[in-house]
Structure formats: C-alpha cells, structure tokens
Amino acid sequence: MSMGSSTVIEPKPATTPVHRRKFIEILLGSGFLATGLAFLYPIVRYLVPPRTLDLGGDSVVAAKTGELKPNSGKIFKFGSRPGLLVRTAAGDYRAMSATCTHLSCTVQYRDDLREVWCACHNGKYNLDGRNISGPPPRPLEAFDVQVRGDEIFVRRRREA
Amino acid sequence: MSLLRNLGAWFNERLDWNSLMAPLRKKTVPRHRLSYWYFLGGITLFLFMIQVVTGILLLLYYRPGANEAFESVQYIMTQVQFGWLLRSIHSWSANLMIFTAMAHMFSVLLLKAYRKPRELTWISGVILLFLVLGFGFSGYLLPWNTLAYFATKVGTEITGQVPIIGKPLMVFLRGGEDVTGATLSRFFGFHVAVLPGLATVLVLVHLLLVQRFGISVPPKVEQEWIVNPNARREMKFFPNFALRELMAWYVALGVLGALAALFPWNLGVKADPFAPAPAGIKPEWYFLFMFQTLKLIPSKIGPIDGEVLGVLAFGLAGLIWLLLPLLESRQPSRPKQWISAFALVALVYMTGMSIYGHLAK
C-alpha cells in the first residue's frame, strides 16, 4: 500500500529539476541574447551613414547668358546633384535633372541628335526630359528656367 | 646542412611534424586524360597570393579619399620605382584570377565534381567567387577615375533596384545617398579588410574540404575504370602533383609578368561627379554580360520596371547557382544531364553576351 501511495507522489520531483534547468536556460539564453542585441544595435546604427542635408536650395544660377551657344548643353551643380541646362537650336533654355532615371549615370546633350543622351546604357530623352528610347523607365525631373539680367536661374518645380 | 637537420629534428620532436604531414603524403591525385583541369584551382590560389602581396605593397603609398586617391595612384605609377609594374601586376592578376576561378568553376560543373559528398565544397567555392567579384568591384573604384566612378554608380544603383532591402543596402554600400568620398572610404575598407578576412577563412575551408573528400574522378572515367580496373592510375600528391602544380604556377607567373609589363594598366581621368558619363563607357569584362542584358531589357515589362525584373532574375540565377548540387541530389534516380545542359547554356550565354557587349557601341 505504501508503495502505491509513493508512486502517486513520485512524478512531481521527477519533473521539477527539468523545469529548473529550463528556467536557468531561458534566463541565461535571454541574457546572452540581450547582450548580443545590445552590441549589435549600435553597430547596425553605426553602419547607416548620417543623413546630410542638401543645402543647395531650390534655385541656383546655372550659367551666364552668353555662355551657351544655341544647340548646346551644360552640366551645373544643383545642390549635391548634377543638373543639365540645354539651349535649344531655337535659342530658348530648358533645364532638367542630369541623373538618368535608369541607373543614375549623368546624362549629356547630344547636339547631333538634339536629344538628351545617357552614355551608360544608351537611354534617350527629349528636351522636356521625357524618356523616348532605351531603358530609362521615367522622365527626367524638369526644372523651371528664368533669365534675370545676365544670369540663368534654374528652379525646382513646386508640386501643386 | 647538419644545422638545418638539427633544427628540423628539434621541431619534429615537439610538433610531431611527420605524423601531421602523413595525410598529405598519403594523398593521391587521379590520373587520366582530364587531369589537366585539376590545376585551375591551384592557379587561382596562386594568383590570390600574388594579390595579397602586391595589395600590401600598394597600401604603402595608396591614400583613400576623393581628393587624394587618384593623385596617390598617379604618384605610385610615376614617382615610386616599379610602382607602375606593381599596380599593373595587381590589376592583371585580379583579372586573370577571376578568369581562372570561372574556368575552375565550369570545369567542376562539367566534370561533375560538385556531386555528393562535395556539395559544401561547391558552395564554399561559389561564395568565394562572389567574394572575388566583390574584390573586383570594390577595387575598381579605388583609383577614383571617371570609369570607376560611373561603374560604381551604376553597380550600387542596381543593388538599389532590389525590392524592400535594396535601398537601405545601397545607402549602406555608398555611405550615403550618392557616390562620394564616403563611398571610397567604405570600398577601401571592404577591399583591404573585410573581404580579405572572409576570403582567407573561406579559402582554408575550401582547401580543408578538398583535402577531406579527396579529388573527384569524372563519372565517365570512373565508369571506364570499373569496366577495366587495370586502367586506374593515380599519382602521389606530394611530390608528384605538387611539382606539376608548381610548374603551372611558374607558367602563370610568366604570363602575368608578360601581360603586366607589356600592357601596363591605365589610370584614366580623375572622377568628376559633375561631368556627364563618357561615351562608350563599359564595366570590366566579367560584369559585361549582366551590363549588356540590362541594356537590352525594355524599360517596362507589364507594370514592373524592366530593370527590377532583370536584377531579380540575376539574383535568382545566383542563388540557383550556389545551391546547384542540392537541387540535383533530391532526384538521384534521374540522369544528371540537366545540370550539364544548364552549365553549357550559362557558359554560352555569358560568353555570347560578353562578346556582344564588347562589340556593341
């Protein structure tokens, strides 16, 4: 009879050590995990470069009026990125981003084609910046051009 | 000479050198009509060692930074004695190493050396090839010339095309939104610290695995040997194969020296972030097939940008390539022909597209 009663109680001591071990394991494991994460987080943040403010503003002087002959183009600095100013054969000015929408090479004006051309993958745009042939998926961002005195101002278009 | 022998005995007494070297003495290399392909891996290793030595030498004068890098390479090439030669050897050896690594890979594929139990050897080898391409891509920027600048711009932009993780990855690689001096600093770090560390460990793993499983015999030769056991031949790795390999290295050194001296590597024009990409710009030959493919993909395929699709396709192809032996072992009953066909198609596609890319304007 005594044996029978002892077998009823027995399962408890058999399971508790496992619980304790599991508890220690979880405690240690989560401790190591937390330590690991505490090291990893600053490293990941360190790898992400700080954002630099583009202080180029919305408007720059791209060129002087005498600088460009008709049917020619020029790269100018628009903040930290290049822009393209084109003087058409008719003599008026067009300005757009010079960063190709395909894989961001710098485009140029081709006076023989009278188009904007990207040398990297043979992408072509018209003088409004619209992609007309080759791999570019989107038009170049067009800028507003204003001639004031002898300076040619280029301004980013405001979204309405 | 007795001094040398005594010194050898002294070390042997402590390290038990003889028993350490015993497996190497027992190692044999199968001998058959295709044995020549066994040299390619070793030649790649030799060129890698040349890269380490010349790279360290270039480090003595090279300065990273957008205002200094180009000038310091110019200095190496014009002022430092034999600087032009060392840089030329480093560039040529890099290109030859990529070529021999690829040849080694295709020989392993076509001789079916990647099969069980050598899957891990294949995987470590493909990762090594990716690392080598990473070396090529990061090293290409270091002279900070126009070609390198635009190659890096396009290359990192391609990374940016991958959905979700692409953009953060691109910013991480560039050290900012654009390719600047910060990119150069990062690429320098990858090229001289991160990649060499990883590559050294992986080369050791790769060699240990080769050592563990022995040299694979192509199934066709194996079959012939089973039919006619008297035809089975092998040679000792040491010294018979090692001496032959050494001769191969000597030939490789000769080819490298001749190329480096007769066709010194150009430096080009200093990078200008505000100049248009020059006409006729192309990446290095080993990226040419991808470049040409991306050039031919239309801008839109259905609603998706053609570029994104192209990049994802190449990513998927790379993953399949990496796991190739695992894909085969799942169906052991089927004849293993599709992988050889796949390898041949890949080889023809890569070669064809590279030639097309080279000839196209």
Provide structural commentary.
The complex is a heterodimer of chains A (160) and B (361). Chain A has 160 residues and is of the alpha+beta class. Chain A has two helices and ten strands; from the N terminus they run H-H-E-E-E-E-E-E-E-E-E-E. Chain A has helices at residues 2-9, 11-47, and strands at 59-64, 72-78, 81-87, 93-97, 108-110, 115-118, 123-125, 131-133, 142-148, 151-156. In chain A, a hairpin with a 2-residue loop joins strand 9 and strand 10 (151-156). Chain A starts with a helix and ends with a strand. Residues 1-6 of chain A have low confidence and may be disordered. Chain B is mainly α. Chain B has a domain at 32-274: Cytochrome Bc1 Complex, Chain C, CATH 1.20.810. The longest helix of chain B has 33 residues, at 181-213. Chain B starts with a helix and ends with a helix. At the A-B interface, strand 2 of A face helix 7, helix 8 and helix 12 of B.
Q: How do the strands and helices of this protein lay out in sequence?
A:
The complex is a heterodimer of chains A (160) and B (361).
Chain A: H1 2-9, H2 11-47, E1 59-64, E2 72-78, E3 81-87, E4 93-97, E5 108-110, E6 115-118, E7 123-125, E8 131-133, E9 142-148, E10 151-156
Antiparallel strand pairs in A: 1-10, 2-3, 3-4, 4-9, 5-6, 6-7, 7-8, 9-10
Chain B: H1 2-15, H2 17-26, E1 28-30, H3 39-59, H4 69-78, H5 83-110, H6 119-141, H7 146-160, H8 166-174, H9 181-213, H10 219-227, E2 234-236, H11 237-262, H12 288-296, E3 300-301, E4 304-305, H13 306-322, H14 324-329, H15 337-359
Antiparallel strand pairs in B: 1-2, 3-4
Helix pairs in contact in B: 3-5, 3-11, 4-5, 5-6, 5-11, 6-7, 6-9, 7-8, 12-15
Q: How would you name the CATH homologous superfamily of the largest domain in chain A?
A: Rieske [2Fe-2S] iron-sulphur domain
Q: Quickly count the helices of chain B.
A: 15
Instruction: Please identify the structural class of chain B as seen in this structure.
Output: mainly alpha
Element pattern of chain B in H and E: HHEHHHHHHHHEHHEEHHH
Helical amount of chain B: over 70%
Q: How many structural units, i.e. domains of chain A?
A: 2
Number of strands of chain B: 4
Structural class label of chain A: alpha+beta
- Distance separating the two termini of chain B: 64 Å
What's the CATH topology name of the largest domain in chain A? Rieske Iron-sulfur Protein
> Architecture of the largest domain in chain A, according to CATH?
3-layer Sandwich
Unreliable sequence segments of chain A: 1-6
On the 0 to 100 scale, the average pLDDT of chain A is: 85
Oligomer: heterodimer
